[in-house]
Amino acid sequence: MSTLVIKGVSRIFPGVHGGKPTEALQPTDLTVAHNDFVSILGPSGCGKSTLLRMIAGLDDISSGAAMDRRSPDQWPRAAAAQYLQWSSRAMRSFRT
Questions:
Q1: Would you put residue 79 in left (φ > 0), alpha (ψ -120 to 50) or beta?
Q2: How far is 39 from 49, CA to CA, in rounded Å?
Q3: Are 60 and 11 contacting, i.e. CB atoms less than 8 angstroms apart?
Q4: Is residue 10's pLDDT more than 90?
Q5: Is pTM beyond 0.85 here?
Q6: Residue 77 has pLDDT above 60, yes or no
Q7: What is the dihedral of CA 32, 3, 24, 44, to 10 degrees?
Q8: How many whole angstroms from its chain centre is CA 22?
Q9: Measured between alpha carbons, how far is 28 from 78 in angstroms, rounded to an integer?
Q10: Dmax of the chain from CA atoms?
Q11: DSSP 19
Q12: Are strands 2-13 and 63-68 parallel, antiparallel or unpaired?
């Protein structure tokens, strides 16, 4: 049984001062089974962080749905949901 199911999730940020909207994440589907380990890879600006923020409940979903099939007592609190992104630039700062 899948623990996390994402169907057609997308994010569009409204335009600022009448400008055109920005599509941060195109409609995305993802199914994660219990005990699966998942890596989300892609170039800068492709929507990786946006997807993780929407799954954690820290950002709004423009369309689609993300369903967590665990019982509510197993859900992480949105305020406690954290994730780390490591880039080569960030790793270099530890070496100085």
A1: alpha
A2: 12
A3: yes
A4: yes
A5: no
A6: no
A7: -40
A8: 16
A9: 21
A10: 46
A11: P
A12: antiparallel
CA–CA distance, 32 with 47 (Å, rounded to integer): 18
Q: Which residues, other chains included, contact 44 with Cβ-Cβ below 8 Å and sequence gap of 6+?
A: none
Average pLDDT, stretch 41-54?
A: 89
The values of phi and psi at residue 71, to 5°, are -70, 150
Element (H, E) at 64: strand 63-68
Cβ atoms within 10 A of the Cβ of 25, count?
A: 23
* Residue in the block written with tokens 């859900």: 75
The span from the CA of 85 to the CA of 90, in Å, is 9
Between CA 54 and CA 30 the distance in angstroms is 13
Tokens 């993802």 belong to: 30
Please answer whether residues 11 and 24 qualify as being in contact, where contact means their C-beta atoms are separated by less than 8 angstroms. yes
Q: Are 82 and 52 in contact (CB under 8 A)?
A: no
pLDDT of 4 reads 84
Question: Which residues have a Cβ under 8 Å from the Cβ of 36 and sit 6 or more positions away?
Answer: 3
